[in-house]
Amino acid sequence: METLIIDGGKGTLDLRRDGILYLFWQPGVGLEEADIQAAMALVNDVCHGRGRPLLVEMTGVKTVSHAGRAAFSNPSAASRIALLGSNPVDRVLADFRGPNTHPCPTRFFTDKCEAVDWLLQDAAGAR
Fold first, then answer.
1. Exposed end of the chain (fewer CB within 10 Å): N or C?
2. What's the average pLDDT block by block, 10 residues per block, for the chain (127 residues)?
3. Would residue 125 be called left, alpha or beta, if left means φ above 0 and alpha means ψ between -120 and 50 degrees?
4. Residue 76 and residue 79: Cα distance in Å, rounded?
5. Which residues have a Cβ under 8 Å from the Cβ of 15 and sit 6 or more positions away?
6. Stated pTM of the model
7. How far does Cα 34 stand from its chain's mean position?
8. What is the Cα gyration radius of the chain?
9. How many CA atoms lie less than 13 Å away from 22 in the CB half-sphere?
10. Domains and CATH numbers, the chain
């Protein structure tokens, strides 16, 4: 799959060879509800109704609006979501919702290899 640009240009989506979807948000961007909805609509389109693990690179994202945060709680084709960041600000942005408000298992990581390992625990059924 070629790299897809999220509507609005703030991020990209790729399907890796291991079956993980990779959503990359550009450092320094502010995310609004429309950005999150566009990204998740693209995830759903790429998955064709089949659940896949999703790695979200959010290192350096400046803000996520309240409505954008709520949009993350909507069900999607993501079977697991690993939020990848690198600093305390990224963790605060990732921890905006309680653990029981996500539509699928969701965790924050600062190590990409750990995030991928966790995602692949559930990936065998998605390939």
1. C
2. 93 96 96 96 94 94 87 89 79 57 83 96 55
3. alpha
4. 8
5. 1, 21, 22, 46, 52
6. 0.86
7. 15
8. 13
9. 14
10. 4-126 (3.30.750.24)
